[in-house]
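Entry type: protein chain
Record version: 2
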Amino acid sequence: MGGLDLWSYKTQAWLGTYVIRSKDGGVTWTEPIPVNIRPMKHGGCRLGAWELPDGGLILALYGRMREYSEDGTGETNRCFLVRSDDGGDNWDYYGTLAYDPNNIIDYEEAGIVRLDDGRLVSFMRTHLQPSQDTKSMIMVVSEDDGFTWSQPKWTRIWGYPPELIRLQDGRYLLVYGYRRPSYGVRGIISDNGIDWDVGNEFVISEGGIPATSQVAKPSSSRVVPVAGLYDEGAVNYFHPGLYQHIGYPTVTQAADGTVVCSYHEWSQDERPLQILKCARFEI
């Protein structure tokens, strides 16, 4: 099960949220299936769907209820779930993971894992408005398959976005991008999925920021070029602008027990390119 969200530069409008399905182990895939996210105006998708014990599917999204545009609306993003009970053909709003009615805290890009006792645990990326300052991730817990969630709890874990998996030995692994020096991707292991100690943080990958950029370029695909050029020359290691966009890890455990984590970073070419890398390690 996969998801995607699309932006249109010229219309500044949300084109939709979709899933695709495979019934043969990923050899072939369906055409995109639109996801009903009403009453929300848009729904950004970071990870794929999760299957519940009763066969239902839940998909974690983030977005706004009143405006289509991502920025400048005065409304912060919330994280929410849509659910399908027919294998992904039809979806409906199901539950709210986290939302700030004061429109100060953005909640985005949730990662979810099911514990052995049946509870769901979710970590989320956060930002403060209007500064866009990145804060530590928050954690919420559901005891009813995602219909309701606990109040957001600040963790001491800085980074984003998260993904979580259950390891073969019964422990739980959290991985996340790290977009400040020394950059890269990091991880933490929890014995029970509820208690996470940042003191146990370990480095999966380090670096990923280019030293120089050969040409000037827009800082974002949604910025008018004359207003948002990123200068050529040396890249500021502490404030790399566009090149801070690294990480987005996804992780799984192989049959032999090793952990495989993929992520993206920037090449060291004269004209840096975003590249995909993969790390394999033992826990």
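Comment: Confidence is low (pLDDT under 50) at residues 1-12.
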